[in-house]
Amino acid sequence: MRRVRIDGSASGVGALRSVWVGAARVQESFVRWDTNERLTFDIVASNLPGMAAMTEDWLLTEQSVDHTTLRITIGVEAAPLFRALAPAIRAAVKNSTSGAQGIAALFPCDES
Fold first, then answer.
1. Contact 46, 26 (CB under 8 A)
2. CB neighbours (10 Å) of residue 62?
3. Which CATH number does the domain housing residue 27 bear?
4. Quick one: which of 88, 85, 89 has its CA closest to 76?
5. pLDDT at 111
6. Residue 52 forms part of a structural domain
7. pLDDT in tens, 53-76
8. For residue 112, what are the contacts with CB-CB under 8 A and spacing of at least 6?
């Protein structure tokens, strides 16, 4: 992500944000907001002609006192004219969300 803009309420179900990844811009609406546990959002607007719909679900699971996992599940539906390109669209979405792995670097745990 190179830019994020909050479009109204900053948190909770119904919150909106616009996100820029490269030349792509999407507006996301949060449909689930369980603080410190889970977030789910749908794309409600986009400048990507090949995407008909997209949903992301982020789930934090505490494994132990000093270890939490982040699981990101993404569902993408290609627009009818782009369905033959679905593998390429999936690859582009996967690449655009690979930065989520860097979240762990922001919250290092002491492994002593």
1. yes
2. 11
3. 3.30.530.20
4. 89
5. 45
6. yes
7. 889 999 998 888 888 888 888 888
8. none
Hey, which residues does 89 pair with through a beta bridge?
none
Which residues in the chain come in under a pLDDT of 50? 106-112
CA distance 56 to 62: 20
The per-residue pLDDT for 110 is: 47
| Cα gap 82→39, rounded to integer Å | 28
The residue range of the domain holding 79 is 3-101
Q: How many beta carbons lie within 10 A of that of residue 26, not counting itself? A: 20
Name residue 55's beta-bridge partners: 42, 75
* 13, amino acid identity: V
Cβ neighbours for 13, distance < 8 A, ≥ 6 positions apart: 30, 31, 32, 33
Provide the number of structural domains found in the chain.
1
Kindly write down the DSSP assignment for every residue of 67-82, as one continuous string.
EEEEEEEEEEEE-GGG
Residue 112, in any domain of the structure: no
